[in-house]
Each structure stands twice: as structure tokens, then as C-alpha cells.
Design brief:
about 25% helix; globular; alpha+beta; 3 helices; binds zinc ion; two-stranded antiparallel ribbon; about 10% strand; single chain
Length: about 110
């Protein structure tokens, strides 16, 4: 939850989903975890299973990013929050379909 107040919420771009959000979505979609078995924290192996990086670099400014602050974008590369612009994905479903074809293939 952001503390920032937006003067016009309708105009504010939606917060894009991070790699972490996409990983959580795919771990459930691929049947690796259920809501009952989902761990409190994900590890590197979890990210590997769903084909996502846990660390990376921003495409634009080269900042180091990790799953929680790396945003998949429509360029096909990760970006940091400052550089995402409008190229991020609004939902994990949308990102999953765009990046992985929406398939259930691990
Ligand atoms: Zn950046």
C-alpha cells in the first residue's frame, strides 16, 4: 500500500505486477503449490521451476533488481519501478499469457 496520494486516481497508471507476483501465480497455476501448501517465502528453486529470474538488472538504468522490485515489461526485459513507464503488466494473468503463452507447460 502506497502512502502517496494521487490527485487523480483515474489518471494514475496502475501499479504493475512484479516478478514475484508472476512467480506466485505460476507456482499455483503449474500445480507446484496450492493455497494450503504455499510457503511463506519463495526460494531460488521456486523461481527456476516457473522459469523466472530471482535477480536481474533493469533494462533501462541497469539497476539491480530482485523478484519483489523487478517488473516484467512488454519489451521482454525486466525494469525497475522507475523505468517501467506504462510497459508493465497490470495482472499476473496478463503477464503470464504474454510471456509464457498462458500455457501450463513448465
Ligand atoms: Zn531502471
Amino acid at each position: 500500500m502506497s502512502e502517496r496520494l494521487s490527485p487523480d486516481p483515474e489518471q494514475a497508471p496502475a501499479q504493475p505486477i512484479a516478478v514475484l507476483d508472476l512467480a506466485k501465480h505460476r507456482l499455483v497455476e503449474l500445480g507446484i503449490y496450492t493455497s494450503e501448501t504455499f510457503p511463506e517465502a519463495l526460494n531460488g528453486a521456486d523461481f527456476e521451476k516457473v522459469g523466472l529470474p530471482i535477480f536481474g538488472g533493469c533494462e533501462v538504468c541497469m539497476a539491480s533488481v530482485a523478484a519483489y522490485n523487478a517488473y516484467p515489461t512488454q519489451t521482454g526485459y525486466l525494469r525497475c519501478e522507475d523505468c517501467t513507464d506504462d510497459l508493465g503488466y497490470a495482472t499476473a494473468e496478463e503477464a503470464n499469457a504474454a510471456i509464457f503463452g498462458g500455457g501450463d507447460v513448465a
